[in-house]
Structures are given as C-alpha cells and as structure tokens.
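Hi there,

I know you've been waiting on this one. I reran it after we fixed the sequence typo, so this is the corrected version. Both the input and the resulting structure follow.
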Amino acid sequence: MKIVIQRVKHSSVEINKEIHGQIEKGFMVLVGFTSTDNTTIIDKMIDKLINLRVFEDEQGKMNLSLLDIKGSILSISQFTLYADCKKGRRPGFTNAARPDIAISLYEYFNQKIIDKNIHLETGVFGADMKVSLLNDGPVTIILDSQEICS
C-alpha cells in the first residue's frame, strides 16, 4: 500500500464537471494498493496517517496531527502509484492490485477513517477525476507499507 499525503488548505475532486467531494484544512490523500495488501496493513497505515504531526502549533512548529486540528481527508484511489517505469517509456501496472481487490481495500480504508470520526470525502474508484488542491507548506509525504509495516 502506498499513500501520498498532501497537507492542504482545501481540496476538491470533480467528476463529469461536478464537484463530488471537497474539504477544507486537512489531507488530500492518493491511495494505491498492491495484491499483497490486507486489512492489517491498512489499519497500520491509517494509524500512521492520522497521527502524523505535520500541522503547525502556536509556535509555527509541525507538532500537531490531523486528529489534533480536527482536519478532514479527501481520499482518491490511485493505482498509478504502483507504476513500473524500469523498462521502456510506457509504465506497467502489474504491481497494482486488480480492480476487484483494490476496490474492497479502498472501501475498507475509507470506512476505517469514518469510524475514527474523521470527516471524509472521496472520489469514485476508477472514475476520470479532476483533483484540485492548495498544498499548505508545501507539505507532501509518501507512506509505503513496505517501510511502515515491515
């Protein structure tokens, strides 16, 4: 599982020229899965995500978590996080989970965030989406379950 986290002032996702989801302060998160991912890995990654201390405190230091600021998450499924660009010029995506596996993992990921009382907005799995955001900082962090969960 890979997650690209962007700390945002606001973010939105548009599908068919209509806003499908939007948040104010929080994280815009791109989420990708591989075939070996499971609910245990997702649980660990969510714990890391929501407790990352990357929001500024009163002294301007990155010392607060998403939970501390009562921030929101915009979750976007992103199989291209598993692009393999080693050969040729066209990326391969064989390391990405098949859609039937990835969609259930993505739904589990989103439900677990909701279960933690975090405001969640989402894109639509497999849809052509236009994502907008105002990156705050900029702060962008990549979490890889190979590093977090091993």
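Quick highlight: Helices lie at 39-51, 66-69, 99-115, 145-148.

Best,
R. S.
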